[in-house]
Amino acid sequence: MAINTSTVETNLTTKLNATSGTTDAKEFLLLGKAVEALTPSVTVTSIQTEGTTQVAAVTAEGATQVAAVQAAGSTFAPLAGATFTGDINMGANDITTTGKILYSNVYSALGDLPSASTYHGMFAHVHGTGKGYYAHGGNWIPLVNEDSSGNVTIGGNLTVSGSTTTVDSTTLNVTDLNITVANGAADAAAANGAGLTVDGASATFNYNSSFDKWTMNKGLVVSGAFTADSADINGPLNIEEVKEKVIVDTSTTGSIFGNLSLGAVRYYTANQTANRTISFRGDQGSGISLDSIMAVGDSMTSAFLFTQGSTPYYISSVYVDGGAPAVLKWVGGAPSGGNASGIDAYTFTVIKTAASTFTVLASLTAYA
Asked: Could you tell me how many helices (H) and strands (E) the chain has, helices first?
């Protein structure tokens, strides 16, 4: 039987501390004998069994607590080598609170960067180049970087899609040989007004589609030689000196093409051997007619100088653009012959009076 030692202890305490009645030696003797007669049935095996039970209970409880700690710890990343498979949410923190991510994502050289395909969207700094890069489309693309002097170099094309581009620099250097304005204009009308404006001076250099010409609102000063195929001057022309091109020819016979786009003065230095005819054109070789380069009311003047021998000859007919002989008006009447041993100078003024219609004023001066 099991001994309830708590009961024995209580009974002894009560008997010893009794404040009423008497307790004699006999009672103590009997009580002592009773205690000696107690034979509790507690064995080593029972103690081991009870211990095993208690250890199992502690083990089970410990496993429960360890599982709870592991479950809670699974939501936290280790201090080194953590791999995240989801978003990292730092919360709604502004610049006055915590929540910032501070890191140094530096690689020594471009070859040290990881796969751009694996880490699409990653940003990194390469110390060797001094640039920042981001991964996109399987490539590491350099960011636009400003160096310590504030300089920026763009290795590819630059496209600006805004409405205004302002360049605040002292010097603008352009390597390209040609600058295109009105890019993508469908036709001349859409490009009307394209050009250059000088602020402050209100000076403009623009394309005018109505005339298909460049227009300027300021005068032009040329210090060197000025070459032009043609010129329209809608006002007084102030010229201090004129030097005109002379086309020298040695032919003595045959028809002459008066290509007025190429020159207005022709000098035939060899003695003529036959009468000549002249057909005025814009440029026979290029198929340009005189009618195409003249407007109604325009006139063009040219001179032909013929060297004459002892037997002189003269210009017998004049044409314009290869049509019928032009209407000629001579000063002092049409010539019937040349002037021997001299130079005959013919002057022709071609006036366009209507489409493909011309009047030619002519004169002959003999130089002995």
From this structure: 4, 16
pTM attached to this predicted model: 0.48
Other C-beta atoms within 10 Å of 131: how many?
A: 17
Q: What is the pLDDT of residues 119-154, one digit of tens each?
A: 999 999 999 988 899 999 999 998 887 877 888 888
Q: How far is CA 127 from CA 108, 112, 118, in A?
A: 5, 11, 22
139 CA to centre of own chain: 20
Sign of the CA dihedral with 143 first, then 144, 149, and 150 last: negative
DSSP string of 249-318? E---SS-EEEETTT-SEEEE-SPP-S-EEEEEESBTTTTB-HHHH--TT-EEEEEEEEE--SS---EEEE
Residues 266 and 246: beta-carbon distance below 8 Å:
yes
- In the chain, what are the domains? 106-142 (no CATH), 190-219 (no CATH), 246-367 (2.60.120)
DSSP tag of 224: S
